[in-house]
Design goal:
Number of helices: 12
Strand order of the largest sheet: 9-7-5-2-10-1-11-15-19-20
Number of strands: 20
Strand content: 15-25%
Structural class: alpha/beta
Mean pLDDT: 97
Distance between the termini: 25 Å
Low-confidence stretches: none
Bound molecules: guanosine-5'-diphosphate, 6-O-phosphoryl inosine monophosphate, magnesium ion
């Protein structure tokens, strides 16, 4: 049985959480493969909004097991908070949530290092979520990290101490003013580790291998988006993991020839949180309207998201890198009421018109070239079938499908599970 993937094609926050929740009824296993609590995945149903950071977005369904894969980095403190938030929903967590022994641990000092590194960068900062993601992946690839499996050995605290001591010395190296009380942070960390130890740690690659043999249906859930990929994103303004399709292979131990459908998710416009280039960014009333109507505030940090028109140059690149087999367009409802819509189909770059992402996109050297399309003003949020969609929205979808050469199979018209139209 093949493993399907669901990934964000832009700079994150495309609506991955919502769609994983919608699709879970058709799967036996939902597996997160990279990133950590820098992610904020929002789900809405029965009038309640849930935000998940590390726990996969299939957790509310009885039919599915949720796996946190080896490619994920886990902060026990945030993980415990997520577990506490779920308590009132009567979910049998130990039965439904499994954690890879090979997933790496975010220590309190990783968070401090993230803060020190950002403070030292000043204006050039990445705009990190400050969850310790970069320093934890650095320790992973530097072969110094601590893993979930270490918590099964009695000496894990001495390993912890050695690493935390090293981090403290490194924080000093940055020579910035970071105030912290490590004793307090550690007390919270150790308590959270105890909560984590109540859950089942597994060799997740083995578990998923067996599940595939038994014909179980598996959906891999991505975090962040393709343009934040450590290799293919807008480096250095990226996250520290491979957010693209190949990341699911290394982040779960799934062989490339076992990947089935690659579901690429994008907003009908574009948003970005944090620093870095964003060619179609709007600084006018249109951008403000997208932010207001789309309620564009980060699900993890609450920061306002930067908004702009859809960038087909970047989207095409993401479709290619990931081998996307079907597309899902989110937040079409937010564009209702715009008289004219713009879609970037090329860049003006160093005096030339180009249709690929150049090595270095910066606002100084890239100017978007737009195709204009008529908008629609119908309220989409009550619509539930493709038949009801306005003509101009269908024209917008047709245009994108033609440009991207991949079918758009889902059109999302609101945050709720039910506001999902299959085509
Ligand atoms: P993720 O990180 O990809 O899971 O996305 P986020 O949860 O960070 O951000 C997506 C936001 O848009 C959340 O607040 C969702 O509830 C909301 N959302 C998802 N789909 C739609 C949609 O079709 N229309 C509207 N208006 N909101 C949506
Ligand atoms: P989801 O899964 C949007 C951004 C940060 C920052 C950069 C690096 O909800 O789509 P990091 O904390 O990883 O060092 O930050 O990446 N970023 C996200 N932006 N959605 C996310 O996740 C993000 N995770 C990280 O804002 O610019
Ligand atoms: Mg998000």
């Amino acid at each position: 049985m093949a493993v399907d993937l669901l990934l964000g094609l832009q700079w994150g926050d495309e609506g991955k959480g919502k769609i994983v929740d919608v699709l879970t009824k058709d799967y036996d296993i939902i597996a997160r493969f990279q990133g950590g609590p820098n992610a904020g995945h929002t789900l809405e149903f029965d009038g309640i909004k849930h935000v998940l950071h590390t726990i996969p977005s299939g957790i509310f369904h009885e039919n599915a097991i949720n796996v946190v894969g080896n490619g994920v980095v886990i902060d026990p403190v945030i993980f415990k908070k997520e577990l506490d938030n779920l308590k009132k929903f009567n979910i049998d967590i130990p039965a439904r949530l499994l954690i890879s022994r090979k997933a790496h641990l975010i220590l309190p000092t990783h968070r401090l290092l993230d803060a020190a590194s950002e403070a030292a960068k000043g204006k050039a900062k990445i705009g990190s979520t400050l969850k310790g993601i970069g320093p934890t992946y650095m320790d992973k690839t530097g072969r110094n990290g601590m893993r979930i499996g270490d918590l099964e050995f009695t000496d894990w605290k001495s390993k912890y101490r050695a690493l935390a001591n090293k981090h403290e010395a490194m924080i000093g190296f940055y020579n910035v003013d970071i105030q912290y009380d490590l004793k307090e942070l550690e007390a919270e960390f150790f308590q959270a580790v105890s909560a984590l130890q109540q859950l089942k740690f597994i060799d997740s690659e083995e578990y998923l291998f067996k599940a595939q043999k038994e014909g179980k249906k598996i959906l891999a859930e991505g975090a962040q988006g393709s343009l934040l990929d450590i290799d293919f994103g807008t480096y250095p303004f990226v996250t520290s993991s491979n957010t693209t399709a190949a990341g699911a292979c290394t982040g779960l131990g799934v062989a490339p020839n076992k990947i089935g459908g690659v579901f690429g998710i994008f907003k009908a416009y574009t948003t970005r949180v944090g620093s870095g280039p964003f060619p179609t960014e709007l600084f006018d009333e249109d951008g403000a309207t997208m932010g207001r109507v789309g309620n564009e505030f980060g699900a993890t940090t609450g920061r306002p998201r930067r908004c702009g028109w859809l960038d087909l140059v970047a989207l095409k690149y993401a479709v290619q890198i990931n081998g996307v087999t079907q597309l899902m367009m989110m937040k079409g409802d937010v564009l209702s009421g715009f008289k004219t819509l713009k879609v970037c189909t090329a860049y003006q770059y160093k005096g030339e018109k180009i249709t690929h992402l150049p090595y270095n996109i910066a606002s100084e050297n890239v100017r978007p070239i737009y195709t204009e399309m008529p908008g629609w003003d119908q309220d989409l949020t009550k619509m539930s079938t493709a038949k009801e969609l306005p003509e101009n929205l269908n024209a917008y979808i047709d245009f994108l499908e033609k440009e991207l050469e991949v079918p758009i199979k889902i059109v999302s018209v609101g945050p709720d599970r039910k506001q999902t139209i299959h085509r």
